[in-house]
Amino acid sequence: MGPAALGAAGTGPAAAANPGDAGGTAAGNGLGGIAADDGSATTASSGDDGSGVGSGGTGVSTADATGVGAVDGAGSIIVNGLRYDTRTAVGQVEDAPAGLQLGMSVKVIGPVNADYTQGIARRVESAADIRGPVTSLEPAQGRFVILGTTVTTDEATVWADAAGLAAIPAGRTLQVWGLPAAPGVLRATRVEQRDPSAAAILTGTVQNLDTIRRSFSLGGLVVDYGAAVLSGSPDGRPLANGTLVRVRGTAAAPGGLVATLVQWWYPLPTADGVQAQFSGIVTDFASPGSLRVLGFPVDASAAQVNGGPPGALGNGVKVEVGGVLAGGVLRATKLKIRHVPGTGGPASFDLIGAVGAFRSPADFRVKGQPVDASGADVQFVNGTAAKLGNGVRVSIHGTRVLNGVLMAASVRFE
């Protein structure tokens, strides 16, 4: 499946409109969805949001950096709080015919500025991380099991077509984007319901690799990769225990998966001097100077820490880190704590663009994303709710996406 240049996108944001999707690239070409649609009822977005991002005045370097995380905003897209201009990006979006949406995991390649706030996306890749029937549900604990992997949720999980985990019935087939945590665990960043006929997808850490039998374990499932294509290995390195992979195939009872494709999961660069910023769940924590995120060694001993006290760092904590690679380790200069088990953490979604498809303050779109700004506690800046209407430029901030709708906490008129 080859990449396509970024272009015009479809207008539908909700993956629920495609319940039987079993794969494929975004509708139209390129990224689609919130990355290319301004939500206007009459015109397509040009991709220029008027921000000047990448215009030469932002301090963006010319060297490519790598970013991995979940999409938490649009304008063009925002990943880990870093706003990327996607006007010249090449995109490959799988498993989402309506294009890129809030909460989808992505890998972005392109130059960024020194404080990891703005960048220019040259390439954006996205694909679902788990797809299969729910075999166990624990709504009170915010977790469920698919294909032998425990999927956990937090305040930042996007619910595309449900009000939350309590609204999901046992046995329902779900498609999940997320961030691999400890072996056999994945933190969901977006959850959609899918048709039961959709092919299986499973992401996780390779364990119990047997190169003779050509099998390995992902969580509680044994993967037979004897007939599978192996793709995306950086530097040609072979499959090994500890490798993060995304597997596509056919579920086989009992407890097995016959793989057709094994992909390295958003592989990170290893060359010294390369900038990288990514989000994930901390594992193998020994100290701030010795931990892993997405299985990658991180030294955060000299990092500026925000979002919580440095003492909150530990296994299971969700973080965003940014820095420069040296000796196979990310030497982090910035670390943001996003979620601490048992304590919680901030969830943040932002949309920057023109209002479209306006029906009322409770029903309109920005960048194709449905928004509800009718809450009594919504803060309006530079105007009131009466100012909302098609074509009006706004910045929307919210902390929850339920049933595919961003519940606005604030609206700023630009």
Average pLDDT confidence is 87
Cα shape = globular
Largest sheet: 20 strands, mixed
The share of residues in extended strands comes to over 45%
Total number of beta strands? 33
As a whole number of angstroms, the C-alpha radius of gyration is 20 Å
Q: Structural class of the secondary structure composition? A: mainly beta
Helical content (DSSP H or I, runs of 4+): under 10%
Q: Number of helix segments? A: 0
Low-confidence stretches at least 5 residues in length (pLDDT < 50)?
1-29, 37-58
Distance between the termini: 39 Å
Fold and architecture overview:
The structure is a single chain. With 414 residues, the chain is an all-beta fold. The chain has strands spanning 4-5, 65-74, 77-79, 82-85, 90-93, 105-110, 118-120, 123-126, 130-138, 143-146, 149-152, 158-159, 173-180, 185-193, 200-205, 207-210, 215-218, 221-224, 229-231, 244-252, 256-264, 275-287, 290-293, 296-299, 304-306, 318-326, 329-339, 349-360, 363-366, 369-372, 379-381, 393-402, 405-413. Helices cover 0% and strands 48% of the residues. A hairpin with a 2-residue loop joins strand 28 and strand 29 (363-366).
